[in-house]
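Q: Protein A?
A:
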Amino acid sequence: MATATSGPAGLAMERRVLQGIKARAVPPFRSRSGPDQGATVSMPVPYPLQLELHADLHITRWRPLVQWLLAIPHLMIAYALRFVRQALTLISFFTVLFTEQIPRPLFDAIVMTYRYEWRAMSYAFFMHEDYPPFDFDLSSEDDGAEPHTSLRLTYPGHLERWQPLYKWFLAIPQYFVLAGLAIAAALGLIAGLFAVLFTGGVPRGHPGLPGQRLPLHATGRGLRRFPHRPLPALQPRRVRQG
């Protein structure tokens, strides 16, 4: 006949058993789109720039052939916004030199141009099927108008006066990394194109969803000209696939 364990030793044993049962009962991680539906790519926290992509693993086969055509209006707007961003960035350069800060409306407008470009390019490179909205919300926080992509940048209340003069030099090693990412993006885009055309989806474990590194490369290259406090470290990481 078994005797019940009592006292502190018995309580400790019961606690360990309950913890083991609870650990085994925790359900596995699922992506936001559900099992086998998508993958999430995001920037490491707590970096001021947060860049996210919720990509589809299943794409209609004909879309890579025509989706870039459907994206032309967005790409034209994004191209025009680049010139606007260059002018605003030049103004912010002098505001930092003289006031050690960027006016909040100016900062929000610059972030909006990056967000719009991120949305347009992610659609053009068939990373999802939902047509992005013509959204020009002047905010450094993403309004969630496009559910597949997100770009937000923390507003720096104070910036060192002389950093815009030399931070571009500190970023030179990362330019070499971006050059490598551009090559990887081209290869990933080609592989993803044929995978979608022949199978209707991106293979599980594909090294970077089709072309995802290319928009990250383009966005990161521009953000290195933008004055914010930490040295940029655009290193996308694949969080989970289906």
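Q: Protein B?
A:
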Amino acid sequence: MSVAPITTNPPLPRELWLKRLQYRSWHRGCKETDLVLGHYCNTQLEGLSEASLKLFEDFLDEDDADIWNWLTDKTPCPKPEYTPLLDVLKQQQLGY
């Protein structure tokens, strides 16, 4: 059985991809992360490159509790690729 290669292309047309990311940002199950990620999505998403959108999509796959702990510095994020995104989220929403 062959495995399909991973691509960096958006899984949907850009407009639908943005809508999907926005929905996922605002409907996570934890109100605190909904507010932080939803606000970021509303203000930043349209200007992001495809690579940044893919990174944000990967970030949305993380557990809410982990994201909240990273945002509040309760635990360090084990994925250095998320550091710039976390810095922006903290600066924008949490006033760090």
